[in-house]
Amino acid sequence: MGSGSSVPAPLYTQWAATYNKRNPAIQMRYLPIGASEGINEMSRGNGDFGAGEVPLTAAQRSGGSLTELPILVIGIVPIYNLPGVSQGLHLSGEVLAEIYLGEIKNWSDPQLKKLNPSLSLPDLPIKVFNRPGGKGSNYVFTDFLSKSSSKFKSRIGTTASPSWPVGSAAERSADMADKIKGESGSIGYVELQYAVKSSIPHAAVLNPAGNFVKASPDSIAASCRQVEAPGWDKFSASLANAPGAESFPITGFSWLYLRTSSSDSRRAAAMSNLLEWMFTDGEQLAAQEGYSDLPQQLLAKVKAKVNSLR
């Protein structure tokens, strides 16, 4: 039993459907209840693993005997519904921060026009959508915004549970995608796969190298390589605003939350079997589904850590 973020939920659903065909005696189920709640469930002793984009605190690692292992590299993309603009929108962290602080309220704002001189942006109010507390996508998004805007960092900061001053909440990632598709003039943020599979436009974002980069498996992996190389052992590192010309800046790890020990040898053996599959066939399936899988050097280090937990 696993629970946590809805960000990687489509992949965990696919993993369960594939893995559960292998052996009737070992079955996996995943419940998308939010990253923070997934950690809480593990801390309470419920379930066998958690999943999400929020790093564990020192207290959770020591007091709860938990550890996190990166299993995916994900990109959170700004999605939008803008009449006459189906592609080509450019956004910066500073401008996104101003939108989510309620300072920029119209698509015709001069700051947006400056980033998009070739687009005809409409005089239309911006309808802001956000996520409620405890969500992994909030953590990655606010991490990026905090690194891009000192104003955002001081007012809201990097957190899974932001006190948003503006906007309406979308409970799950799929709800966010549906709301943006249904609301003209809207903006929101989801993991890349939700945008791709829902055919929702997503903006190119300005990275620290001065390039507007669209999220893709390659640009997301580029951020990971910039942060992790050459040691490939920063398992809980922030990947937001990574250096490099090709790096997509709103990037983060999606982690597995695991216990460092177990008193149930039967369940521990089953979990060990699942982990071995996740980091081999599961990684290959993730790449086939369009996710950015872990670089091979990092994957080797993660597998070594998995073996040390057995």
Our Rg estimate from Cα atoms comes to: 19 Å
User: What is the CATH level 1 assignment of the largest domain?
Assistant: Alpha Beta
Mean pLDDT: 95
Would you count the extended β strands for me? 11
Report on the architecture of this protein.
This protein is of the alpha/beta class and 310 residues long. The chain folds into 2 domains: 2-73 and 252-309, Periplasmic binding protein-like II (D-Maltodextrin-Binding Protein, domain 2); 75-228, 3-Layer(aba) Sandwich (D-Maltodextrin-Binding Protein, domain 2). The chain is 40% helix and 17% strand. The chain contains 12 helices and 11 strands. The strands form 2 sheets. It has an 8-stranded mixed beta sheet, with helices on both faces. A 3-stranded mixed beta sheet has the order 5-9-10. It starts with a strand and ends with a helix. 46% of the residues are buried. The mean pLDDT is 95.
